Every structure is written in C-alpha cells, then in structure tokens.
Amino acid sequence: MSQYLNYAIQLAQMVEGQTGLNPPVGAVVVNRGRIVGIGAHLKKGDKHAEVQALDMAKDNAKGGTIYISLEPCTHFGSTPPCVNKIIEAGINRVVYAVKDTTLPSNGDSILQEAGIDVEFRHQPDAENLYKDFFITKRQSVPMVTVKVSCSLDGKQATDTGESKWITNKLVKKDVFKLRHHHDAVLTGSGTLNADNPQYTTRIEEGKNPIKVILAQNGNIDFNLDIFKNTNTPIWIYTQNEALVTDIEHVEIIQLTNCSVENIMKNLYEKGIGRLLVEAGPTVTSEFLQSNYTNKLIIYYAPKIIGGSGKYQFFHTDKIIDLSEVPQFEIVDSQMLEQNLKLELRKK
Amino acid sequence: MSQYLNYAIQLAQMVEGQTGLNPPVGAVVVNRGRIVGIGAHLKKGDKHAEVQALDMAKDNAKGGTIYISLEPCTHFGSTPPCVNKIIEAGINRVVYAVKDTTLPSNGDSILQEAGIDVEFRHQPDAENLYKDFFITKRQSVPMVTVKVSCSLDGKQATDTGESKWITNKLVKKDVFKLRHHHDAVLTGSGTLNADNPQYTTRIEEGKNPIKVILAQNGNIDFNLDIFKNTNTPIWIYTQNEALVTDIEHVEIIQLTNCSVENIMKNLYEKGIGRLLVEAGPTVTSEFLQSNYTNKLIIYYAPKIIGGSGKYQFFHTDKIIDLSEVPQFEIVDSQMLEQNLKLELRKK
C-alpha cells in the first residue's frame, strides 16, 4: 500500500457526498519524494481532482507521478479529459486505485502511447468507495441508503405510534453526518404528518440535503415545520394532479405512477447521486423490497417493545419465500453508547 | 471535533517532513456545507496552506470558513501574511487547532477588526504535530529523533560487533518511513567504517534525507558505499582541518568544536528542521545526554545477548545520579511481528 495512494483515497473520502452524480476523487502529485500538488473533485461541473492537483503543482509536475483514487477519464464531459491534462503536464507515471468500469477504459493506452507508465494498483478501501457508484450509474439511479431506527424486535414505534425513545444523542449525531454525506433525504407523507420531522443536519457547517417527500395521494399539510425552513428545496412526488402550492422552495412533481423505480430515475435526472431514505414502515419496506437499496443502516435501541407490530420496519403484503428475501451482508457494527449501529450492503 | 478541522490536520500530516524549517500545515475552505478548497504547505518558501486552499476556492471563499491546523501567520516571511489573504478572500470565519507560540500572536485581533469570527479550537492531535517544532524553533535547532535498534538487554551489537540479527523486515520498512519524514539523518564515522551502511529510503518515491556524518577526528574512508550514491548531499562535520575531498556531493564542515550543540545550530542554519540520529553507542549516548533529543524510538529484537555490553546503546563516562538521568514518557508501543517498537518523548 503506497502512502501517496492512501492520501489520494483520504482526499476522496473528504468530498464524499458533495459531488452529485460524479464520484468523489482525490489526487496527489509527487516529484522526487515530495508532494507537489493535492486535489479533490469538489463539485460536478468543477475541475476534476487530477486537474486541481496538477494546477497546484504547476512546473513541479514535470517528471513526477500522479496518484489517483480512480482511473483518470478520457472523455469530454463537463470538463476536458484528464488524460490530456496529465500528458500536457509532463507527468511520468500514473498510479490509480480503481478502474472506472462505467467509462470506455482506453485511458491506459492513451497514456502509455504518450510514454507514461501506468499502474492500476487495486485498493480494497477505494473499491468500497466506488462499488455502489458503478452499479447505480449504469442504471441511471441514485445510490440508496435506507436508514432505520428500531427496537431490538424490529419496530420503529409502539402500536400507538410512540417513537421518541428510540435514539440516543450519539445516534442523532451519526444521522446528521449521514444526511451531510447524501444529496437528498426521502420520506413518506405519513411519517411527515405523524412526526412533523425537519430532516436537518445539525453538525457544524453540515450540508442540508434536499428533502424529498413521497405523497402518492397528495395528502400534505403545508403548515408542518419542514416547510418553514426555506434554505433547502423540497420536492414532492405525487399522483394527485390537484396538489398545488405557492411556497417558493417547494416543487411538486406529478408522476402517473409513483413507483420506486420512476422516482429513482427522476431523482437521478435531477442530479441526485446519493439518496438517504428515512421513512416509516411503508416507504422503508417498499425500498427494501425494491432493487434500489444499496445500503441499509440500522440503529438498534436496547428495548423490546412487543405489541402487534404495526410499525415493524419491514412488513410485506405477500409472504416472501425464504430463498427470495432480500440478502444483505454486515460490513460494520458499532456501539454508540447503548445503541447498536449495523451497516449492511445489499448482496 | 469538527470533521473539517480534522481534514486540515490530515493534510498537515501528509506533508510532515517536507517543509524544512517550517511547520507542516493543512487548510480546508468550506462554504454552505461544501468543501470549496484544500491546501497544504508543500515546501519552505512556497505558498502557505491557507493560500493554496483559498486559491483553489477562488470566489467560493467569499462568506466561507477556513479551517487550519495552525494559527495563520501575520508576518512577511518568504511569503506575505496569511491573515491579509484571508481578509482579501472575504472569509467570514477562521477556525484553527493550535496557537503558534513562536510568532507574535496578534492574528486574532487583526482578523476580528476586519469583521471575521475567529475560533481557536484546541486539538490534541494537532498539538502533538507542533509541540517539538515550537521548542526547537525557539532554540534555532532541528527537532531530533534518536533511533535505536537493540536487544532486550539494551545492546546494539554483541561484543564482537555483530548486529545483523537485530531487525526484521517490518522494522526496516518502518525505518525507511522515518527517514522519509526527516530532512537529514546523522551518524558517526565509527558506525560508517564498521557497518558500511547507506541510509537510503527504499519505499516508493521516498525522500532520501541528507546524510550527515560526525567525524571529529576526520577518520573517513571515501571508498565506502555511502559515497557512491550521488543523489543526496553528504555533509561531514570534523575538527580535522586536513580532511578534504573532491567528491562533488560531499561537503566538509570544519568546526573548532564538534559538540552536539554546535552541530545542531549549524544544521538549523543550513535548513535542517528535522534530524534523525541513527548511530552507534557513542554518538547515540552523546545525543541522549544532550538537551537536543525530542524523541527516542527503540526497536527491540526478542533476544538477550549478554557479553560485557561494549555496544549497549546508552553508556556514559560519568555515573549519573538517578534523579538526573534523562526522563522520557512512552507515547506509543507497537508490535512489528516479533520486534517491539517503542516511541518516547523527552519530558
């Protein structure tokens, strides 16, 4: 493991969640044993990480090595191809950690023809950074993280709807971080009307995600707290053609069918690369049953609450054959004081 | 702990060992919850970290916050004051992790008079990065790390001088990293003549430190391997006026008294901010007895070798009273397979 390649991956992790439909990427330019430039892709449409790092390095790039978390691009997108910039800068060697399987992979040969050594050095850390990105980009849908807070017996609330007991302070902080690293947060109108939540990011200079409300029937109370914060756009998906509002930061999107698939495609078109689902049992279960969930994060409170299970986080109308239930693998577990956080990836 | 301040500290750590007499510094500019610029001080004389980050951010800096691992400077050194640049960029808030106690600390008030919020947010991680820097800068001497490889009974070699058994591969790699993060490595002519070492950094694109040889009496064999590598300058300190060479990358520095103190002051004048001492018992013991050792790193091999202790790493002519022996505190311990690494700081 090269320390410089490791630095490039660290830089990518710093900008995770702020690059929209683009992947987070970091780059480090090294010459004669010294770092001469560092860069990260800060925003879709902005300079790529390689360009930032080469711009910082200027003439010191000549004869140097560039370490990149992801294979450099060869296409004209919002910016010119990075391989051109690398060749023009006089770089001698390119080392990258992950191949971009969503792009025509002719970068190696373009660089090699220009006399540049190219090394693809596989890094598991970096692969985890891009795995879901590759999958969802091909489908033109956002990466989806479903977040659930529940009791040890899998319920988001008691039968009467009480749920305030579920999360401690550390979990709340962790959820703020989650929101910061996503472009948008989605919930259902049911949860909205019942809990009156705000979905803000109360960490220092946290990025507030766009709020997406799924309101199939158009049952929305515009006096709820969520509509009072005018800093972040709110998008409402509905099949109800009569639903209108004159609130400036609220956009109503009419779909003939508010299926998870249709909403996903529409969100991606609107620039959402990373979506966090924070909803009640109905919407949560819809996403968990769909093919559009990449990650599941469960916060368990140390309680068993019983009852009929009206608010169990996963319930389905049909009985699913055990061979067909959604399969996940646990990638991380963490104690947050008395709450347990489990991080799972869809298999 | 702010994540952005943490990122600034990570950036500083990436350039540790390449800034000579200057401290390693990292900076991150944030605006409306997004990183808009990142920077690090890459080399003494180059732009400071704040300037790199603000240059990357351009107009996006306006109204933003800059997070810096170290208090921004207010003086004209090799570059103009960073506080001016911060004010010109239209930054709203400055958050830094460590106060620079070696500079007149009027930065806060200059920034505040310009209407900028300033917050000093103490970070233990960052403090460890600068503690020794502050001490040595005031004395105009390099930060000194003494490295020792020895048996469990404190010997660098058997009485016959055998020492090849001492370190395993992981230790060798770790020592290469140590060298990379120092400006120069110092040894004595005795070790050089006995072991014929090269003091190179065999990690990918590692920076080879300048080699400093202490040869009080001028007893140097210029046919040794160390003189064959012409990539890195070699400086020889001696009291012997007759010692000369025409090897191009070798500089002979005559001092009337080759005391540790005189060599330290001279090295600092020549731009050495971080010195690694890798020597035999005599030079090692001299440094450990002096006031110029900041860090001691010991690699223990799982052997007890006995003998008379001719090569014990710390031996002194005088018996030192127990109340006056050099005091250290262990800051880290790590197993490198069967070798134990201890990291200590002078108290």
UniProtKB/TrEMBL annotation, chains A, B:
Biological pathway: Cofactor biosynthesis; riboflavin biosynthesis; 5-amino-6-(D-ribitylamino)uracil from GTP: step 2/4; Cofactor biosynthesis; riboflavin biosynthesis; 5-amino-6-(D-ribitylamino)uracil from GTP: step 3/4
Assigned keywords, A-Z: Hydrolase, Metal-binding, Multifunctional enzyme, NADP, Oxidoreductase, Riboflavin biosynthesis, Zinc
InterPro entries named among the record's database cross-references: APOBEC/CMP_deaminase_Zn-bd, CMP_dCMP_dom, Cytidine_deaminase-like, DHFR-like_dom_sf, Eubact_RibD, RibDG_C, Riboflavin_Biosynth_HTPR
Residues that coordinate or bind Zn(2+): H48, C73, C82
Residues bound to NADP(+): W165, T191, D195
UniProt function note: Converts 2,5-diamino-6-(ribosylamino)-4(3h)-pyrimidinone 5'-phosphate into 5-amino-6-(ribosylamino)-2,4(1h,3h)-pyrimidinedione 5'-phosphate.
Protein family according to the UniProt entry: In the N-terminal section; belongs to the cytidine and deoxycytidylate deaminase family.
NCBIfam families: eubact_ribD
Name of the molecule in the record: Riboflavin biosynthesis protein RibD
